[in-house]
Design brief:
alpha/beta, about 25% strand, 6-stranded mixed beta sheet, Maf protein, Alpha-Beta Plaits, Molybdenum Cofactor Biosythetic Enzyme, Chain A, 17 helices, 5-stranded mixed beta sheet, single chain, 3 domains
Length: about 425
């Protein structure tokens, strides 16, 4: 197995990207698709609507990579410079492309609109390029091939670019370059930090064959492991990565919750549905974000019954039912309070499981004993109440998200450990349970 790596650079053109007025989501999507096609993206570059900057970026990219994929700057107005810059770079003139003109004319006619002189100019292309049909819009793409290098210019509008890439550009790149087969295998872990995870699997990682590489992809509360295998046969690579993934089970199996693109909230939903268990939530510091994650999953009504958001002391006491003496003695951010919240919400909604959050998200509200990022979470069922104290970050948004992930993981751990036994919720009083 001896493949030359085919490399690509993504060049985004437009002042709006540099000013931060729009987010460049194209580059991320293109990187994924190119990787699946066996093409390695080695650089992403953004330049503004300045001719000299665009020409310099094109020249530098040509020296670095095999393929330059350009998005943006193909509109009909004077600030759209990509097309004239490409004509200048490849030393050829602009000429009306009759096929492109027919396509643009038909596009406008199909929408009952007249083709203006400005829009007509979108069919004027560099004479030295091949036209790439835009089935979703009016700006044709352009394909240039010189000295074994390929340049492709596409619209910046995401749905136009994606259709062009999928239907035309990627298939043609695979015909042009001898690309290897690339297979990715993603293993998703939660509840363990990147460095601790790396330490646990160090021997396994060091024994990986040369054609399979491991990447750590940390996020808020979770770390994804991505195996990337390069070779000749997709089936063989998939079998290899699957076997390697299986070897992780005895090492870090308790932290692995899913493979591929399945999120933690989807995994938790599957566990609850399969066990026919129902869930209710009392969330204070997370302010509804945990419920948002739960309800982002289609079909969550099979297991999720509802949420209370008792943010203030008053609501915790009067609407939820936390005893005043507990709040007065221990405060809202405490283990006794979180135990009551989880047990009471379970009783109020008559669900199998109740979970709760209470903490100091920040930036204010901290004390020396309870700094910003102090969060208590709890899981309650008829047999036990499990609590966790988290010490998170100084950042409010991070704390809200990480606390929500921690609760999802707490549900996962306890449903899995119980063997997901189906039990009917029992009639209960609103008295707090006892921590196990």
């Amino acid at each position: 197995m001896n493949h030359r790596t085919i490399t690509a650079e993504l060049l985004t053109i437009g002042d709006e990207i540099l000013y931060g007025q729009i987010t460049d989501t194209n580059a991320q999507w293109m990187s994924v698709e190119l990787g699946l096609a066996g093409i390695k993206v080695v650089r992403k570059t953004s330049v503004g609507d300045v001719e000299s900057e665009i020409l310099t970026a094109l020249a530098e990219a040509e020296q670095r990579v095999d393929i330059v994929l350009i998005t943006g700057g193909l509109g009909p107005t004077n600030d759209d410079l990509t097309k004239p810059c490409l004509a200048k770079y490849f030393n050829c003139g602009l000429k009306m492309n009759e096929e492109a003109l027919a396509e643009v004319t038909a596009f406008f006619a199909s929408r009952g609109r007249e083709l203006t002189a400005v829009n007509r100019q979108q069919a004027a292309l560099p004479e030295c390029c091949e036209k790439v049909t835009n089935k979703m819009g009016t700006a044709p793409g352009m394909w240039f091939h010189r000295n074994g290098k390929v340049f492709v210019s596409m619209p910046g509008v995401p749905h136009e670019m994606k259709r062009m890439m999928t239907d035309i550009v990627i298939p043609k790149l695979k015909q042009t370059f001898p690309t290897p087969v690339i297979v990715h295998k993603v293993i998703r872990t939660v509840g363990i930090g990147e460095s601790f995870l790396a330490d646990k699997i160090a021997a396994w990682e060091n024994a990986l064959p040369p054609h399979i590489k491991l990447a750590y992809l940390p996020g808020l509360g979770e770390v994804k492991l991505r195996l990337t295998a390069i070779g000749d046969t997709e089936a063989e690579l998939k079998a290899e990565t699957e076997a390697l993934s299986d070897q992780l089970q005895p090492l870090v199996g308790s932290f692995i919750y899913a493979h591929g693109e399945e999120s933690l909230e989807v995994t938790v939903g599957k566990l609850l549905r399969e066990a026919k268990l129902t869930l209710s939530i009392a969330e204070s510091c997370t302010g509804g974000y945990l419920s948002h994650l739960i309800t982002s999953v289609p079909g969550c009504s099979d297991y999720y019954l509802g949420t209370m958001i008792p943010y203030s002391y008053e609501v915790k006491m009067r609407q939820l039912g936390v005893r005043p003496e507990v709040l007065e003695k221990h405060g809202a951010v405490s283990e006794p309070t979180i135990i009551e919240m989880a047990n009471i919400v379970r009783a109020k909604f008559n669900t199998h499981i109740g979970v709760a959050t209470s903490g100091i998200a920040g930036p204010g509200g901290a004390t020396p004993e309870k700094p910003v990022g102090t969060v208590w979470i709890a899981f309650s069922d008829k047999d036990k109440t499990v609590t966790r104290k988290l010490q998170l970050s100084p950042d409010r948004e991070i704390n809200i998200k990480m606390a929500s992930v921690a609760v999802l993981n707490l549900i996962r751990q306890n449903v899995e450990r119980s063997g997901a036994k189906v039990q009917e919720p029992e009639a209960r009083s609103q008295e707090p349970g006892v921590r196990s």
